[in-house]
Design a protein that fits this description.
Elements: E1 2-7, E2 11-17, E3 23-30, H1 38-53, E4 60-65, E5 68-69, E6 76-78, H2 89-97, E7 101-105, H3 106-117, E8 126-131, E9 135-141, E10 144-145, H4 177-180, H5 182-190, H6 197-203, H7 212-220, H8 224-228
Parallel strand pairs: 1-4, 4-7
Antiparallel strand pairs: 1-2, 2-3, 5-6, 8-9, 9-10
Length: about 230
């Protein structure tokens, strides 16, 4: 049994994967955020992995991390939405879980999966963009994942699209993900919360309680503020 874990800015999703790439069962945990000790995020990871395993032997765990993973694929150098800053995550979790742990950037993992099992099976070269809490991306050229000189090629979300624009959690301004991500969706709707009876009701008139899922649900009900966002 192998376990794959998607580690995003808002959730951890672990899945048991069989030899054909089919997800057999999953477990989900909330991601505490980037302003908490890394141990809390790693505890959430461990809970999800062990729930999926249900006491069975795990052969290996693969981590798909929403962050800048170095060329050795052992360290998360920086993660805009997670509290890892240069730590050797692979060594720490291998020691904690007593199983081999392999890690890569989440978009790279998605590109490899789509190439092996999904929409890119017939393509030798692919551009992939991931859209979630932030924006990530990956390049497959001639059938090979393109990592770039430092292992972090494809971070499309941190291209500057608005010079002098909104500040980004990466430290720059005007990054694409500040305008087109899940966070951008929530910010846009929050600024117009007073005009939405639906969103006011689900948040209890608390702008800080608004989530992307709430905006999506309100849009499905025809709420004009959510639809505009």
């Amino acid at each position: 049994m192998f376990v794959g874990v998607d580690i995003g800015g808002t959730k951890v999703l672990a899945g048991e994967v069989d030899a054909h790439g089919t997800v057999v069962r999953t477990a989900r945990r909330h991601t505490p955020g980037r302003r908490v000790p890394a141990a809390l995020v790693e505890a959430a990871l461990g809970e999800a992995v062990h729930e999926v395993a249900a006491g069975r032997r795990i052969e290996a765990v693969g981590l798909a991390a929403a962050g800048f993973v170095d060329v050795t694929r052992t360290r998360v150098l920086f993660a805009p939405h997670l509290p890892w800053h240069g730590e050797d995550v692979v060594a720490r979790l291998t020691a904690a879980w007593h199983v081999p742990v392999i890690m890569d950037n989440d978009a790279n993992c998605t590109a490899l999966a789509e190439t092996a099992y999904g929409a890119a099976r017939e393509s030798s070269s692919t551009v992939l963009v991931t859209l979630g809490t932030g924006i990530g991306g990956a390049l497959v050229l001639g059938g090979e994942l393109w990592r770039g000189a430092g292992g972090m090629a494809g971070e499309f979300g941190h291209q500057q699209v608005v010079p002098g624009g909104l500040p980004c959690q990466c430290g720059r301004t005007g990054c694409w993900e500040q305008y087109c991500s899940g966070n951008a969706l929530v910010r846009h709707a929050r600024a117009r919360l007073g005009a939405s009876a639906v969103l006011n009701a689900v948040t209890g008139d608390d702008p800080g309680a608004l989530t992307g899922a709430m905006v999506t649900e309100a849009a499905s009900q025809g709420d004009p503020v959510a639809l505009a966002a």
